[in-house]
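Morning!

This is the sequence you dropped in the shared folder:
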Amino acid sequence: MNKKGIHRSIAAGLRKLRKERRITQAELARLLGLSQAQLSKIENGRGSLVAEQLVRLLQEYSLSLSYFVSAEKSSRNEEDTPLQNALARLGAAHLRIVPGIAVPERLALPEEAVLETLIAPSSRLVTALAPVIVRHCESINFHRIAERLRGHGVEYRIWWVVDGTYHALGERLKEPYLPRDLHRLYQRAFLLLERKKLNLPQRGVEGEAPTALPVEGATRAPMIEDEFDRDLISERTIQLVKQNRDKLANHWRVVTRIKKADFEQALKDSEET
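The structure's back. Tokens below.
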């Protein structure tokens, strides 16, 4: 296995470990003597653990080296499937339900499914959160999701997705031939999101949180760039994606190729199924 392959395996193993043991990024970073930003880069394949850190990890969680060697393959093949089935059942009707794959009980809850999709992001699945939020926005506590994401250093992901959904709803409500029942559903979700004041806030100073802070009780703090897309391996790729991201992603400091229009497309796709 070459250097890049080792980095990918370590990255997949760390993500898998945190998901299985329900460990936050902040907790794991403290154990390994890393900053959260350093751990985030390693989890994105842009670095690796030193031998002492790897040994500590193996001892702390009673793991073998094979856990990391096999993690990348199992991550590619299995990680998204239960989530895909869960989101499909929660309203993302355009996603195919994969037969024979059980959905964990916790993912039957919309809030848990949204949270897990944002912790282990897949660009294919994250836009599918739009129809799920539309159908369940009354019962989802977005502030609680943000608080839980804060432990992973990615608390603003939820506001980026909610913003994208809000704007997607606004565009779909302009459609003159939208079926009446769908129009009522979209109108209700649009008004609910508006009443919760989760629409796009006024942008703050470059590099700082928005002026209309969505997290209750939060203080202004520098916003760290959230390198969302998993294939952002090199600094050159990161800079290219930053330069070409849309205003929505730039506002929430999310480094991704996903555009605002992709959330609207997810709504359209779920309508046609």
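Headline: Residues 245 and 257 are 6 Å apart (CA to CA).

More detail when I'm at my desk.
O.
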